[in-house]
Structure formats: structure tokens, C-alpha cells
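Revision sheet: C-alpha cells.
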Amino acid sequence: MHVASNSRRRTLLTLLALCAELAMLAREHLHGGVLSHHLLANPDLPAVSNWWGLLLVPLLTWWTVGRVERRAQHAASGGRSLKPAPLIAFVCALAYGATLAALFAAGSPLVDYVFFGLLALALVVRLWHAEYLLGFVLAMSWVAGPVLPAMFGAVIAVLSWLVHTAGRALWRRLRPGMA
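Predicted:
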């Protein structure tokens, strides 16, 4: 029954994400057409249409819910609870992405600080977890579409994973008392 409940939750959240993306695209279509966003906000570079969000957002949601459920099962088998952590991570990423999106839309000079702050945050927080990427992409999609934030978020996730993995390996090697 627990597996059926997880599958139902995964499907429901994926459908909810699809409906949200459809609503955003319908709004864009009714207000002048579906937007496209240039890479690095440079008109000389190719543009990516928000239509790709119909594929990306549900797939990212499906993958994220599956990853969280798998980590929760692994934690439960070890006698630990993962319960609030993924939701908190998702909400924090949503808030960070919304802040960045709002500053970008307003043309604020603070965008650079918040943008590079994410790089610094990747050094101390495990930003490779899927819930961070999903929250960031959903928040940023209102300003930059879902594809560009997903690409940037993936780079941040890989950077965070590399730094943390290298740090753990170095710590194991240098830890006193270990032969």
C-alpha cells in the first residue's frame, strides 16, 4: 500500500506541475504569444521557447519526487526520518528563485549579488538534491522560462556535488587517526 501511495503522490504532483505549466503557457499565448528566452540574455545567441516547459517541468517533477521517495526509503531503512527536509529544501529554493526572478524583472543591480550568492551557497549546501533544482526552476520559469534555469541549476548542482565530494574525499584522507 505504501508503494501505491507513493506512486499516486508522484503522479498527482507531476499532473499538478503539468497543469501549472499549461496555465502559464495559456496566459502567455493569450497575452501576445508564448515567449522565447535567449541564452545568457544575449540576442545574438539562440532562443529557447517556453513550450519546452511542457516536457521539462513534468519530467523534472516526476524525477524529483522519485528521488525524494528513494532517499526517504533509504533513510527509513537506516532508522532515520527524511520527512521535513525535502519540503524545506524545495521551499527555500522556490524562495531563492523567486527573489532572483523578481530582482531580474525589476532590473535591480542586486541580481549579480544574488546570482553569485548561489555559487557561494553551492559550496556549503547540497544543492545537487533534486528538490532544490525543481524549486529553483519553478520560481524562475515566470521570468526566464523553465529551460534556462534548469540548465543553470544543473551546472550549480554539478558544481555543488563536485565540491562536496572532493571535500569528503579530502577529509577522509587527511583525518587524523586514520591509517
